[in-house]
Amino acid sequence: MEILGITFGLAAFWIVLAVILIIVEACAMGLVTIWFAGGAFAAAVTTLFTSNIIIQIVVFLLVSIVLLYLTKPMRAKLKIGKEKTNVEAVVGKTGFVIEAISPAEFGQVKVEGIIWTAMCSDHDAVIEAGTEVTVSGVEGVKLIVAPVIDLERK
Questions:
Q1: C-alpha of 22 from chain center
Q2: Distance (Å, rounded) from C-alpha 48 to C-alpha 40?
Q3: What does pTM read for this prediction?
Q4: Distance, CA of 13 to CA of 85 (rounded, Å)
């Protein structure tokens, strides 16, 4: 194989492919291409034994699939993209109303030291300042809350 006047063998092709895939993996940081990099290295080793490109491609695919299968449990443990942040993380937490919530106006709730705009899950209810509430959901950037007393009765 010749690229820009430089002759490359199949081993060089597979190694360059593996390096490119590792660079993509380093940028993505999410176990996206690492299996194919391993497959490309295995295909490069295969060039020591055969120059048949079909065999090399089969080795590349088989090793990539086996690596994908073997590392799937590890990928699940990493919980890539599953971390709740900011507003999603407060659902289920308790806090205190610091500015009354009424049907006509939003109030403010302090949850884990952060002040949020909030509304009551019962749209007709009024929640006075100082009332302990539980966050039952999120609508936009506003918390939907219910008094802890109401939840204990149910």
A1: 20
A2: 13
A3: 0.47
A4: 42
Domains of the chain as residue ranges with CATH? 2-78 (no CATH), 86-153 (2.40.50.140)
Instruction: Report whether 37 contacts 67 (CB < 8 A).
Output: no
**β-pair partners for 115:** 110
Question: How far does Cα 86 stand from its chain's mean position?
Answer: 14
Highest mean pLDDT among 27-31, 39-43, 82-86: 39-43
Query: What residues contact residue 133 under an 8 Å CB cut-off, 6+ apart?
Result: 94, 95, 96, 97, 109, 118, 127, 145, 146, 147, 148
Task: Kindly report, residue by residue over 90-118, the tens digit of the pLDDT.
Answer: 888 899 999 999 888 899 999 888 888 89
The DSSP code for 90 is G
